[in-house]
Structure formats: structure tokens, C-alpha cells
């Protein structure tokens, strides 16, 4: 627990940036028209794939005894995979709406 508190104290500015980016992202996503949602979802899937690869690389290069880095990397991989799978499911469902009915 002491390591986690030290990590947060040493990287406090990064946490502020993440919080600010979250609020900015929410505001940007709210203002996107429905017509652009499918192409942007595909782009988000590609970005999530990059996050997954980056998290795996960070986990590979981290010290095996650094449990904080390994835990955060694992959480990033799991959330990235969930985002990619969910994004592809939503994109596929939206594209099915544009196909002609038989």
C-alpha cells in the first residue's frame, strides 16, 4: 500500500491529466452526430488495440516484483480487450441496420 501511495504522489500531474482528458472526452463524444458514430467506433477499436499492445509491452519490460505495474498493465489489457470486443459488436450491429432486408 505504501508503494501505491508513493506512486500516486510522484505522478500526481499524470492523474490530473487523465481526469481532465476523461472529462474532455465525454464532452466531445456527447456532441458527435449519430451518422459519424460507426466510423468513429472503428477508430476507437484501433486505438484500443494500440492500448492493448502498449500494456503488454509495459508488462514485459517491468520488474517481476513490481506488482503495481503488473496489476495496472493487466487491468489495461482486460479493459482494452473488452472495449475492442464491445466496439466490434456495436459496429457490426449498426452496419446490419444499413443492409437491405430480404
Automatic annotation (TrEMBL):
Q: Name one GO cellular component term.
A: plasma membrane
Q: Cite the NAD(P) transhydrogenase alpha subunit C-terminal domain residue spans from the record.
A: 15-100
Membrane spanning stretches? 12-29, 41-61, 67-91
What broad class describes the main subcellular location of this protein?
membrane
Q: Which domain of life is it from?
A: Bacteria
Q: Which catalytic reaction applies to this protein? A: NAD(+) + NADPH + H(+)(in) = NADH + NADP(+) + H(+)(out)
One Gene Ontology term from the biological process aspect of the record: NADPH regeneration
Query: Which membrane topology term applies here?
Result: Multi-pass membrane protein
What is the annotated localization of this protein?
Cell inner membrane
> What keywords does the record list, in alphabetical order?
Cell inner membrane, Cell membrane, Membrane, NAD, NADP, Translocase, Transmembrane, Transmembrane helix
Q: Which Gene Ontology MF annotations are present?
A: NADP binding; proton-translocating NAD(P)+ transhydrogenase activity
* The EC number(s) this enzyme carries: 7.1.1.1
Protein task? The transhydrogenation between NADH and NADP is coupled to respiration and ATP hydrolysis and functions as a proton pump across the membrane.
| Protein name per Swiss-Prot or TrEMBL | proton-translocating NAD(P)(+) transhydrogenase
Provenance organism: Polaribacter aquimarinus
